[in-house]
Please model this.
Amino acid sequence: MSDDGSLIAVDWGTTRFRAWLVGGDGAVLDRVDTAAGILGGAGGDFGGTFDRLVGGWLQKQAHLPVVASGMIGSRQGWREAPYVECPAGARDLAGKLVSVISPAGHEVRLVPGVMRTDGDGVPDVMRGEETQIVGCLAEGDAPRRLFVLPGTHSKWAVVEAGRITRFATFMTGELFALLRGHGILGRLMEGDAHDPLTFRRGVDYGSKADGGLLKRLFSVRTLALFDQLPAAGVAAYLSGLLIGREIAEAIAWVGSPHVATARPTIVGSSTLAPRYAEALAQLGIESRTGPEEVVVAGIRRILAAGGLAR
Amino acid sequence: MSDDGSLIAVDWGTTRFRAWLVGGDGAVLDRVDTAAGILGGAGGDFGGTFDRLVGGWLQKQAHLPVVASGMIGSRQGWREAPYVECPAGARDLAGKLVSVISPAGHEVRLVPGVMRTDGDGVPDVMRGEETQIVGCLAEGDAPRRLFVLPGTHSKWAVVEAGRITRFATFMTGELFALLRGHGILGRLMEGDAHDPLTFRRGVDYGSKADGGLLKRLFSVRTLALFDQLPAAGVAAYLSGLLIGREIAEAIAWVGSPHVATARPTIVGSSTLAPRYAEALAQLGIESRTGPEEVVVAGIRRILAAGGLAR
Model:
């Protein structure tokens, strides 16, 4: 049958549950997208939630491989799929999948996260992003690629010969949300529409080499105080300042000459990814955007690398 | 009469109203300390609040000079006392006092804040700290002194020949409160007791030259995740990390060789000032602590410089 599935891919994070029924050629045959995240609608009953949301797809084809990535494999999830150390590629992840069985008897394989310890002995982790990165890789890739995954906890990752060799997390999105929602800076803001001019100004000031974030953040307040920033543009300015600062920190972390030549790939939401592309371009760095349905592509590659594809 | 006052000093900030009846020799004869801050109990009726809280002192001596510093002189206060540009010393402040009259007919002089515009064209401001700094100055001072005023918005200020020549604000305290109270890092914390060991570790990691705050902040989460940080020490670690980062930023801002030789003076609360002294000492910088009742001393100096002392 032409619309038989060949696998089910699941992206199960903190706030969302998304699943795709994928055909043999990689085409998406059906999809589910709900608020049943591990801290949301799933309510701790991960097996029951799984059977309820995608059990229908498995009635006809009970033995389809099912792979889930994201926080569902964390300590707070269905079962912990322990972190794999860098370097980590599709084959490394495939070798460390952790299986759980749903109440209806379906096997679900959980993708492990990836960890790395930096020179200071401080660990860094990702969970979910490894699958997205793997989903962006292709035969004939450059030997070294750079990825940017904006979000609450932005990740920058270096991939060499198909494996994530190192990465770093930046708390940009979380800081923006805190300052926007709870701090004195938030009270200066009217709306959070994108405002290219004030965003640009924020990127410029935030990315300057000679000053840290703790000092530069106060400019949000003083520029507003002296009417040098319209209230409708304060949120965009803060967003630009934080993203500019993240890029400056990341450039220092990656090693400056590499960033410009690497043409980093941005994998993010349709609102956030263009902001990062704009900010990178402003700083002279050309970027590209990752493909659509990148989790599906990543899970297909992990299954193929593990010899588990049907 | 030996216990006649010579002036009334008021420190009227966002959350507190503090006032002192001061004798001719500078001794404090009486004091008031209430929650009637400009966003608190004063409820917009600044004149009425003033008369109610210190009117008693003025019954006997109706013409005592009264000077108030802090946010009471801001746009949200009783009347705006516009910012004085750096360089600013006691005489500059005295020349720009703004008078208001209370409902009972008492004149209250409001101390202006101080502002400065950095090389990027971004303004910085202080209001209240200028009076504390002036209160720390003395005849025979070194020609150049450095002040650290920790708080929600920490200030570092350079004083040359008795005038504040430049200063910078760091949003350290606000960021700590936001991350502690609202973010995912706060959920990892059990209590916020001081823990010298994890604080020290935070200072060390936060102050390192080769990495920015957005990346380093994530260490709070990962160290807790890998059981390398006890839950009871997470708050102290975050505090150390932010203070360490502030000091690193401030050293770069002041110009490195100066900080160590300046023996900075810390003016802050009895909980925060020792943390900064500890962190500075850990980074090889000897500091000293400002005098008690520094607002009283500052207001006395401003009155004397303006020829307004009785």
In short: Chain A touches chain B at residues 120, 122-125, 153-154, 168-172, 174-175, 178-179, 181-184, 205, 208, 210-215, 217-219, 222-223, 225-226, 228, 242, 245-246, 248-250, 252-253 (CB under 8 Å). Chain A has a mean pLDDT of 92.
